[in-house]
Sequence to fold (433 residues):
Amino acid sequence: MSIKGQVNRCVKCILPETYPGINLDESGICNLCHSHSGEKSQRRNLDELFALCGKIKSDSTGSSYDCIVALSGGKDSTYCLKMMVERFSMRCLAITIDNGFLSPAVPKNVRTICDALGVDHLQFRPPSPFMKKVYQKSLDGSLQTKAAIKRASAVCNSCINIINTHMINTANRYDIPLIVGGYLGGQLPKGVVVMKVNTKLLSHTRTRGDAKYAESLGVEGKRYFSIDSSDDAMNMKQLFIANPIVGIDYDENDVIAEISALGWQRPKDTGVHSSNCLLNDFGIFDHYARYQFHPYEAELAELVRTGQMSRSVALEKVVAVPTAEDVRDVSDKLGIKLNENG
Amino acid sequence: MKDIGEILNKVRGYVESVSLAEFGENNLNDKTDLFEEGYVDSFGFVELISFLESEFDIHFDEDLMLDLRLASIGGISNVVSENINKQSKNN
Fold:
């Protein structure tokens, strides 16, 4: 890791002046802090999710599951699954998407947790040559909008996109109304515990973007990035996506303690910011080299603004950036020459 | 009641801030298809609806969210203007 310190940052959150659209005033406070409502506890409430889960269970018309949970094997998705089973008493189907770079510790963690919680599990694995092409194309800028750089690194954006698409298509196929994921702030609109999604709308907004994926990745690109818009799949027009972690007072140590009690073990090979994926550090390295800010800046800044994380802890996380040597193995596997401008 | 010019300016400002592009440059104008040209993705569309509802105090039901005019800044502004007027008449 290298420590990146030479940049002016907001004195209230952590956003650096290199972050797109950021201006620091004379006091060193950024425009996003100025426009923030200041409300700290608004989002930490699971009432809406409790009400939704109650309705799903009482309306249940024969589906074997009440919700599907995106289980990456990392700490947050594991904790989400635990919450949905134990706190919300939901019949869960856990789904793991293997992006080709999961830590070898993940399969054992997934089996252990699903056994402990009594949950059915499915794994979906696109072929490695295709995923390698996705990551290569992500890095040349052809797959995402420019604004997506504010949310995550290029490779993470593509992976998240594949996961979200698969989860939505699976929910429709199995007639399951609720998708749950351990998305932290940067991956869903902020402050949202439950989001209503119209499948037809999603398909509509993606249809135009689908052409770009097909252009970059060939016909198989559509298979992994398109919402299924066939008539049968459209039976379920309305889906909900829930992010239960946003509704709690998140304490990483408490989360790890609870899932460790079920047998989860922290992998030793996934870097500072991930507890499941070997690609994450590469994504951070590349993102920083291109844009001179850490891809998790916005997510962590929001946690600081809402009082869920101290500024000093958030700062520690974003100034530690992987070095070229840290990620050379992964870049060799991807067949990518490292951008060493960072 | 907001006039269409005021609505256009707010929508343009929002699209600029989320798309990291400047209005008038690189093909971004009131008629640009924001999805086709890669300024907004499906995640961004959800955020856009959220912005429009809170900024203009209007509600997007399922049918309204499927209005094809929501692909461009001009189209979005027209949809907003129509709905502000409709809700004013209903009140």
Summary: The mean pLDDT of chain B is 85.
